[in-house]
């Protein structure tokens, strides 16, 4: 059952739990104006005990450097709690932002939330973040 965290004129953020993963669906541009909402939502979930996340970017058409910075910040927060993070359904435009920033190899990017949640999470998957595992 999908639960709304934030819903306003700029953005909607909701989550569901699938196979041990907290799938956070973001609907709206992730930019200087909205990225604090993403941070707030994920940190709220971490504080509630969620540890393993899939960020579903299916409905994100724009991600700027502030948005990418927030993703890095929440990744660090999740890592501090021995959690894990995957990105799902990022458009080619969004993946390009990860490429340009040099962070493409630091994240597991999956074509869909279903693919990202196919296997249950394992502890310590961010232990070597931001360096890709070999």
TrEMBL record:
Residues 111-134 are annotated as: Disordered. InterPro entries: Anti-sigma_ant (IPR003658), STAS_dom (IPR002645), STAS_dom_sf (IPR036513). PROSITE patterns: STAS (PS50801). It comes from the Bacteria. Residues 11-120 form the STAS domain. Belongs to the anti-sigma-factor antagonist family. PANTHER family: ANTI-SIGMA FACTOR ANTAGONIST TM_1081-RELATED, ANTI-SIGMA FACTOR ANTAGONIST TM_1081-RELATED-RELATED. NCBIfam families: ant_ant_sig (TIGR00377). This is Anti-sigma factor antagonist.
């Amino acid at each position: 059952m999908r639960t709304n965290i934030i819903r306003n004129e700029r953005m909607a953020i909701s989550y569901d739990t699938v196979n041990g993963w907290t799938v956070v669906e973001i609907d709206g541009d992730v930019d200087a104006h909205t990225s604090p909402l993403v941070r707030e939502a994920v940190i709220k979930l971490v504080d509630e005990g969620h540890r393993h996340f899939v960020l579903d970017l299916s409905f994100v058409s724009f991600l700027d450097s502030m948005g990418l910075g927030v993703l890095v910040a929440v990744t660090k927060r999740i890592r501090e709690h021995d959690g894990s993070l995957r990105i799902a359904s990022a458009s080619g435009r969004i993946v390009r932002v990860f490429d340009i920033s040099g962070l493409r190899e630091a994240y597991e990017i999956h074509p869909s939330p279903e693919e990202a949640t196919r296997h249950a999470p394992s502890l310590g998957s961010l232990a070597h973040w931001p360096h890709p595992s070999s």
